[in-house]
Queue: 3 jobs
Job 1
Amino acid sequence: MFFIMEKPLIFCLFLFYWHFLYALFTVEAPQSLYTVEYGNNVTMECTFPVHGKLEFRDLSVIWEKKDKLKKQVYALLQGKEDFESQDSDFKGRTKLFKENLNLGQSLLQITDVKLRDAGLYHCLIGYGGADYKAINLKVKAPYRSITQGVVSTGDNEWKLTCQSEGYPQAEVLWQNREYEDLTHKANTSYETGRDQLYRVTSTLTIKSRTDEIFFCIFWNKELQENTSAILHITDSVDGVVRTESRRFIGAILIVTALLGSVLIFMLSISKATANKDNRTPVDSSSIAKLPNDKDTCDCRYASFEEEELKSMQVEKT
Ligand SMILES: *[C@@H]1O[C@H](CO)[C@@H](O)[C@H](O)[C@H]1NC(C)=O
Ligand SMILES: *[C@@H]1O[C@H](CO)[C@@H](O)[C@H](O)[C@H]1NC(C)=O
Ligand SMILES: *[C@@H]1O[C@H](CO)[C@@H](O)[C@H](O)[C@H]1NC(C)=O
């Protein structure tokens, strides 16, 4: 009986020591997949055990990218940063947060992420023992800003164009006001633009009366993401109208609203002073003192009563 009980105990002790000896130094990756938008920054993390104060001179941190050829992304060797062997892809775009090393965190920031940065990374740490973990980086580029064009080709026919850049390749769907599918009437072309992005241009030639709207939808199947633009066919449409115009109209609205509130403010002030003036008999003479050329300018801010007075004044002279 005694003999039988002892066996598992020894086994447990063995397991404990085995774990202690071989798993003492382990690197962990709290997050094994990062998805980042093209042009943004990403900070990838792996952790390692630090007991007590970190001995910087004993620490080596290497981040590699596992392409066909291994690429060095970042290296800190025995406490010293080494940019000599850094791959040109990453020149000037990496930063290791040194203060976090004390906490056993290897945080690598890659700025201005490119499409070619996507792939598998290894985070290697040497500190007494050595270990590594793999981390995946995905890069996406939504078709965010759509440039649109509406051109009349005469005879109630219109050429509608939508263009945008993104990744991966998107389909362009077309719909009218009733959400009928017009995609089969459109022509979509794909070019490789800057930094591996696709420049997608789609053209729909269609007969339509004015005051109609059409939609172009960029469908990024892989990202399950849709972005769309509304194209208006109006009488005044001539040449290219851009999506930026919406922002422009927004700005105009804001400016108009601001001017409007200033106007109302001025009106209320002038009304208040006019009311004050009304109680004194110098009312019309004070207005008459205004020089003629200034009249037109001041008119806009004067109350209606004042305007009437002024026109009467002009008629009299
Ligand atoms: C990326 O990081 C750099 C440097 O830390 C900073 O200047 C820049 O604004 C960041 N860009 C974005 C999109 O957050
Ligand atoms: C699309 O463009 C190609 C080349 O410009 C042209 O040959 C084709 O007829 C066009 N198709 C449609 C549906 O407009
Ligand atoms: C995107 O739009 C297409 C066509 O309207 C639709 O079939 C698809 O389900 C939409 N996808 C998402 C994610 O909204």
Job 2
Amino acid sequence: MTRLTLTLLSSLGLGSLTLAAPFSPSAEGCTREALKAHTETLLSAQTSGNPAALIALQTADTTTPFIYTEDFKSKTLSSSILTTAQKIDHNRSLLDTTQCATYTEIISATDPNTPRVIGTQMRFDSTASKLLKIETLVTQPGDWLFNASATLRYARQEETIWVPIPESERDSRAVIQAAGDAYLDLFNNKSVVVPWGTPCQRLEGGAYTGRGLPTDSCNVGVPSGVPITNRRYVIDEVLGSVDAFVQFASVPDSHEFRVEKGKLRLVHTLTVMRK
Ligand SMILES: *[C@@H]1O[C@H](CO)[C@@H](O)[C@H](O)[C@H]1NC(C)=O
Ligand SMILES: *[C@@H]1O[C@H](CO)[C@@H](O)[C@H](O)[C@H]1NC(C)=O
Ligand SMILES: *[C@@H]1O[C@H](CO)[C@@H](O)[C@H](O)[C@H]1NC(C)=O
């Protein structure tokens, strides 16, 4: 760099630190802003029924090609649920900058054709510039406890709860995941100690435990003898949340948890069981 350039930069108030950080994605890594923008791309694809913008983001790497699954079955984006325009009434996303991944819950209760509740995990390269994988669970009439208008009603009630946690009160990724794992382990091991919080509410399909009272408990029983395996997590420390896509015995399922001070506060499930 010439002396003239340096003089010019310093007269503009631009020091070497500014100079050292050009606008390349690799210098910025995986940011919440980039992940949030990708979830907005997903939402507009679903709203319009056009996945083109996501197809454009797919990795071009031929040794580890892009993967798309729907209800745990391999498909392509151009034959996916994203080609069906869906009216979105409510959405909420977890942003995981460590794994460069997202989870988005989409509630469509007032769609003129088919109400649906959709959960989507997206995974990116370390700079959030290329899409490596999308997994989607699509629930609709016929699925376990499905009732999109009830889901919408409770999700709206929870909007004031599912907010960012003040920095000084945030749990680590390990603590958040451990709380979710303990709950999932309980289905196959009654000795597991689950960090129940009070209040706590479970939204399973359209069914709600509790009445929105300070005394509500999530410790109201789970089936036993159900191994919950192949867990793929998305963890957001800011929202104190973890979502896990799992094999619930034999069926595709998502369990999402809001954790506060290490304890379970909210549980959301999506279970694909229609024939
Ligand atoms: C998703 O939710 C946010 C509020 O959390 C809202 O501002 C946005 O408009 C929603 N997007 C869609 C496509 O409905
Ligand atoms: C779905 O939930 C709504 C609101 O809670 C309720 O009014 C309706 O009866 C439910 N529908 C079915 C089919 O259970
Ligand atoms: C069940 O959970 C308890 C408590 O965490 C643990 O000690 C035990 O090893 C678990 N049993 C099995 C079979 O995993």
Job 3
Amino acid sequence: MTAADEIKIKKIKESKLSQISLENIPFGKYFTDHMFEMDYHNGEWQQPIIRPYEPIMMDPSTAALHYGQAIFEGIKAYKNKDGEAFIFRPHDNIKRFNASAVRMQMPTVPEDIFMEGLRTLINLEQNWIPNQEDHSLYIRPFMYSSDEMIGVRPSEDYKFLIILSPTGPYYNTPMRIYVEEQYVRAVPGGVGYAKAAGNYGAAMYATAQAKLKGYDQVLWTDAFEHKYIQECGTMNVFFIIGDKAITPDLGAGTILAGITRDSVMVTLAQLGLTVEERELSIDEIISAHQSGLLKEVFGTGTAATISLIKELKYKDYIMSFDVNSWKIAPEVKNRLNQIRYGQIEDPYGWMVKV
Ligand SMILES: *Cc1c(COP(=O)(O)O)cnc(C)c1O
């Protein structure tokens, strides 16, 4: 298989789009008419196909269901005011996908085929990209091991798919966050930096416990001392302390290298803040709060974009914020949205035309 080979296209008879309103459509619930599919077999990728979106038949012994070789990505496509479709930083997602694949002992997907698959599929589904504010087309590429055999070893066969879901605003209300001190998401040497399915299953119990206490998400801390901040649910976190924006560094491989995180760092620097990627302890956050220097706290991710955090709880210490007075997070969100929706020039080459 080379990128020059045609992607086979099998179209649906009638689009589902006429039965769906895209306005305020909930995240991840509706999928477009077609999907991209490519199988890995005999040590190579086979002919890719775009075909109607439908359930996949699976043998009960399918390896991914038992041993969890499964990875994914989250990307968004937007329409500008002229109705042209653009994808936000897809090459970065493709690189991260392949880094996840390597860590999970899975085959990588050649970047040109991946990109061509994205382009061809989105092109076909153009009408599914909403053009309201804070709306977009969420792109979910994923891969799983598809050997039909029970045995703990890397699979020989894999399935790579891309599905698309039109989406409205994700978390629109400011969040209450519980600083986690008992459960752990990632350790050095582990898979925290990979977008591997098991990371999310492993986080659900702790998150549910925090929800019982009235919180929306946990803020993960390091496994050894529960002292250093990692990230939050499916978001990286930023703390505005004085005139600095601080976010945990990626050093130990315990944090997902968010593409929104990177875009936000660039934007914060553009706004004149000093951006620091470094170890950040909960003690430093608390003392900044006590001295009045902790100005804003927010999460960043493709699904959520920028999510304001209105409360942080650590042990018995609660930090509450009046998010309505914040200037920086809303301005960052605004600038990123202006680039995404083509309202201002994109100086970074982030928007890739479909
Ligand atoms: C996907 C994800 C993020 C955000 O990454 P983006 O590239 O900005 O979408 C952050 N943390 C985790 C654990 C994630 O899975």
